[in-house]
Amino acid sequence: MTISIWRYSHLVLAISSSLFLGIASITGIILAFEPISDSIHSYAIEESKTLTLSETITTLKENYEEVISFEIDANDALLASVITYEGKSETIYINPLTGKKLGTPTEKAAIFKFATNLHRSLFLKSIGRFFVGLISFLLIIIAITGILLILKRQGGIRKFFGKIEKEYFSQYYHIVFGRLFLIPVLIVAITGVYLSLERFSVLPKPKISHQIEDVSFTASPKLTIQDFEIFKTTQLKNVRAVEFPFSEAEEDYFLLKLSDKEVIVNQFTGAIISQQSYPFVAFVSSWSSILHTGQGNVLWSIILLLSSCSILFFMYSGFAMTLKRRKNLMNSNLRYSKDESEYIILVGSETGSTFKFANLFANALSASGKTVFVSELNKYSLYKKAKHLIIFTATYGVGEPPTNAKKFTQLFNTLTPIHPLQYAVVGLGSLAYPDFCKYATDIDQLLQTNSKFEPILDPYKINNQSFTAFKNWVSDWSQQTQIPLEVKTPPENKKIQLDQFTVINRTELNSDDTFLLRLRLQSKVLFESGDLLAFYPKEDSIERLYSIAKIDGDILLSVKKHEFGVCSNYLSQLHPNEQVEAIIQPNPDFHYPERNKDVIMISNGTGIAPFLGMLDHHSKANHHLFWGGRTQDSITMYADFIARSRKSKHYFAYSQEEKDKEYVQDVLQKQSQLVSSVLNNNGIIMICGSVAMQKEVIAVLEEISETQLGVSLSHFQQKNQVLMDCY
Ligand SMILES: Cc1cc2nc3c(=O)[nH]c(=O)nc-3n(C[C@H](O)[C@H](O)[C@H](O)COP(=O)(O)O)c2cc1C
């Protein structure tokens, strides 16, 4: 079944039960404090647990005129019904060691009474109880569909507790807490259903019936209570309650309710008249009550408290996610129908974020006077005036289409477009998955099978919804079509608090129009090589990310100056002691691995930056730096930093030299022995640079892995041995 059916059920059930679930959770939070408060005010005496029944009963009988019954309550305190020597009938807590009165039971606090009634029946008696049972049942299904969604998202059971790709706060913590509170929430829901069914007498009653023969009630041989075998061998910790004989008549007896059975004992001889184990339903019923209420266990009460809080959080974060998704789908700026528009934008998206990019692009096109229509890939159709088709799509599962794109291939094969169409495909995906943006490349190949479709750009892949990469693609598309486009800043970027940095040094441009910029942080912020530095130039406030090298506590960036690049031009004009504003974005997935295993670092162009900081890392590991540039002159700028590391080996490739033209993947291929031995010995391969380079490098690594090690590269990717930060 598709992911969206589960998501749909999860959402519909959550919405339909939200009011009652909210009430049940809030009252659940209040009620979780009851066992905690009871245990604080309990009269339990820890040392009395190992007392035998004979010792306890003897002490009670010595201190009171008559003992009618006693029970050990949920908090292990002894509550007895007695008649005192003064002739008073009392129900009191007693210290079993001394027989002294400790206190009297207090009435349940009004807040707990109120919360209990609301929690159990919403003050609606039987109808309310029915609703509460139903909501508990829905909660079970919500939890199960939630598990399925996490399984789908994480890519299977083995990765269930693996790293979660963080997109935004509510999405991330919905999954984090979902995994954490899954079991307690399921327990609360299942026991809630059980207790409700019990109330409605749907389940068999946990009753015990004793078979007693009259001959059992003999009065001889008469023993004292201290000598009753069963009393001598039973400890108080295994006792739930004891009912004393009503009178000295031969047919009256002791009724012992122990933790696993009920026993009837002759009051004169101590002989066991009857004993019956509790039926299984009694066991389930008692555990359901304990697990649902937390009575007698402070730790479990705290878990129940946190679980109730988590349900409220799930309600908030779930709705926040839905709202965000809906917002991304809607675009109120577009006015043209599919048959009026020249520019058709089709989107493949599961959770809605791809729509955000498609809509930004559509709005930019619309602002430059074009007729634009945005729809889903599943709604692919014939378009009367269309000249351009632009496809934005995410990838899911193992390189599969999102749900709203599943029908596209079939529709495409059955519909022949009215006019020839120029097209471009943009893939949104994540390098955390082995099949990076695979569905986008599949679509591109599909379109190429029909001569009515003419590609105007290669398929373009965007990692982790990078806005910078998206902007670069818009600029490529704009150049290709000669349509000037201005993409508006996504609103999230406007609130960011920036840090101050002082320029320490900037090198001159080299022959590749690249320069190094050394910055020093004004405030204390922890960072590592591989983290990212984000700039938001005043002109457009659009985020630009640069990979950081940490050199003696400073930040070193390698920047390529683009002719019309707002940010790179601004950075290329900075002078020592000038101040710049930016913010460090942690990128823990691309930090130097703390494994003391050999590391192969592969990069091209400015992608070398993080490695300049990592090369002299104080580790026992060997470093192998592969780098691809245009000419020998290109590497000169980095030479000093590379020379700092004594234990690293270098392999450079130059694509524009007169002889020996080669790319970084060619050099890598020549070192296939090294690559396979590093992979085989749990070493790490790090790749930083352009996505085009990454694609070639991955192909070479895949080939080496398959031919020399007999396994696919994804085997090592799953073991986190291949780290990538490409753009
Ligand atoms: C369960 C799951 C599976 C994914 N599988 C892939 C994949 O195979 N390849 C890929 O490049 N990205 C994969 N991604 C990443 C998404 O394609 C990416 O986050 C995308 O931006 C989501 O867009 P959407 O919000 O429009 O659905 C996956 C994400 C999830 C949650």
UniProtKB/TrEMBL annotation:
GO CC, any one term: cytosol
Top-level class of the enzyme under EC nomenclature: oxidoreductase
Domain Flavodoxin-like: 343-482
Entry annotated with the keyword Lyase: no
Keyword line: Amino-acid biosynthesis, Flavoprotein, Membrane, Methionine biosynthesis, S-adenosyl-L-methionine, Transmembrane, Transmembrane helix
EC number: 1.16.1.8
Matching Pfam families: Flavodoxin_1, NAD_binding_1, PepSY_TM
Superkingdom field: Bacteria
GO molecular function: flavin adenine dinucleotide binding; FMN binding; NADPH-hemoprotein reductase activity
Domain FAD-binding FR-type: 496-593
Transmembrane segments: 12-33, 130-151, 172-197, 298-323
Alphabetical list of PANTHER family matching this protein: METHIONINE SYNTHASE REDUCTASE (PTHR19384:SF84), NITRIC OXIDE SYNTHASE-RELATED (PTHR19384)
Name of protein: Methionine synthase reductase
Organism: Aquimarina spongiae
